[in-house]
Design goal:
Layout lengths: L8 H18 L6 H7 L4 H8 L2 H21 L7 H18 L1 H9 L9 H23 L7 H20 L7 H18 L4
Length: 197
């Protein structure tokens, strides 16, 4: 009698962890379903059964990135200062990208030609944007900044993504202190420029 296949949640989690680690070590070019299966000590058909295809595996890496980032946002405590709450959210984003460059690359740069985010992927990204929008709304309500909350949230996230790309490429400086100083300067300059109308 053939052995029953074990496509367990544990195997799924292990394959996902290995996929992220493989991306980190091998990059996009070295990322293959076969390689992930080998490193996860399972078969390529098992990976396909769990994720559909390579694009499905990349899609799950994409979702995992947003899940990790959202959990970090959810742990942020309200400081009582709406402006500081926005700054802290951007700092959490910065720390996430610094610690998870592979996830951030899949989330924001989309380096895989065969992965085209659909509605559910866009919804995952919007959960992060909505978190920032809510903090911007509080700032506007407190009279700290003025403008449209959705526009401002998009600008802040675009700024953070751009800074993250520059940092990853080595363009923001050679020391952690200089990089952090330039992040703080950029965020402060944008918030100062959004003073109440």
């Amino acid at each position: 009698m053939p052995r029953t296949k074990q496509r367990t949640p544990e195997l799924r989690d292990r394959v996902l962890d290995v996929a992220i680690a493989t991306l980190a070590s091998e990059g996009v070019i070295g990322f293959t379903t076969r390689r992930v299966a080998q490193e996860a000590e399972t078969s390529t058909p098992a990976v396909y059964e769990l994720f559909g295809d390579k694009a499905g595996l990349v899609r799950e890496v994409f979702f995992e990135g947003f899940r990790v980032l959202r959990r970090r946002f959810d742990r942020l405590e309200d400081s009582g200062d709406p402006r500081l709450n926005i700054i802290r959210a951007i700092e959490v984003f910065h720390q996430f990208v610094r610690e998870n460059p592979v996830l951030a690359d899949v989330m924001f740069s989309r380096p895989f030609a065969d992965f085209d985010p659909g509605p559910s992927e866009l919804k995952a990204g919007s959960a992060v944007r909505e978190f920032i929008v809510e903090r911007v709304q509080r700032c506007i309500a407190a009279g700290v900044i003025g403008g449209n909350e959705t526009d401002i949230a998009h600008v802040l996230l675009a700024l953070a993504q751009g800074l993250a790309a520059q940092e990853t490429a080595g363009w923001l400086g050679t020391s952690k202190a200089s990089v952090d100083r330039r992040w703080a300067l950029a965020v402060r300059a944008v918030l100062d420029g959004l003073g109440p109308e």
